Hints:
mainly alpha; elongated
Amino acid sequence: MALASSRYLKELYEAHFMGESRNFIELLDYCRQHAITDEKLEQAIKQLNGSPVKQLTTEKIKALLGNKQDHFEPLKWTQTTAMAKSQLQQLSTLIN
């Protein structure tokens, strides 16, 4: 069903997973569970193809897709953070 709806997935299967249907289904299931788009999958595969990786495997793709950089919001500047910074500067002055 996924192959019929996505030309990219069909090409991916034919290029790298022919005869390894179970691994391909595992990759599709991983992508579905983690809301990974075809574009993100394609980007990861291009990155692996550009590296010295000899064979593209489901494990390598999943590892690359799983290595996301979490984006954290910077701390908001409050009176507490201002006091903490001031105290750290004072301690630094005393130590040095």
